[in-house]
Amino acid sequence: MTSVPEPEDAITFAGSQDGFERLWTPHRMAYVRGERPSPDAGSGCPFCAAPGQEDAESLVVHRGEHCYVVLNLFPYNPGHLLICPYRHVSLYVDMTPEETAEFTELTRQAIHAITAASNPAGYNIGMNQGEVAGAGVAAHLHQHVVPRWMGDANFLPIVAQTKAVPQLLQDVREQLAGHWPAS
Fold first, then answer.
1. Most CB contacts within 10 A, which of 40, 68, 131, 167?
2. What is the DSSP letter of 156?
């Protein structure tokens, strides 16, 4: 005769440890659900809204005439900056010559500021144009400047789709703003 295993006690089973740490990130549900900022200019676009707020509140590090620099809310590493034109434009080729020149100059200045503040070993610099290319906010052009250090990537992003960022955004903003080169 085959013996039937005893069912596990529901009270102790539900409380069993599985060995995983949990990082609760409810703000990421917009991305899980597929919600995206509005493609229209204005309050639905975070890159249109940021310049209308105080720098510390919106994490703006530097303001130029045609473009500004802001910390990424979802950074790959501390100091992950975004260079954005004030104008709601989606493609690099649609910027004016003045916007393009300042966009390039602010990228150069961002590298100088990050280097002075935290001396990374390298950088990833780039932009994703269009949702299919990976742009989270495809309607408003922005360029990423990501500082990199030897060993800054570990198993968490690969195994757990989790990124450990060792500095608070406000602390990084203050540090970078303090190291921004004079124009």
1. 68
2. I
pTM for the model stands at 0.72
How far apart CA 82 and CA 61 sit, in angstroms, is: 10
Exposed (0-12), middle (13-18) or buried (19+): which is 68, by Cβ within 10 Å?
Answer: buried
Give catalytic residue positions: 142
Residues contacting residue 104 through CB under 8 Å, at least 6 positions apart:
none
pLDDT band at 165 (very low <50, low <70, confident <90, very high): confident
Rounded to a whole number, what is the distance in angstroms from the first to the last CA of the chain? 86
Specify the amino acid at residue 18: D
Radius of gyration of the chain (CA): 21
Contacts of 116 (CB under 8 A, 6+ apart): 179, 181
Q: How confident is the model at residue 127 (pLDDT cuts 50, 70, 90)?
A: very high
- The pLDDT assigned to 133 comes to 83
Tokens coding 12: 């102790």
- Contact, 37 vs 45, CB < 8 A? yes
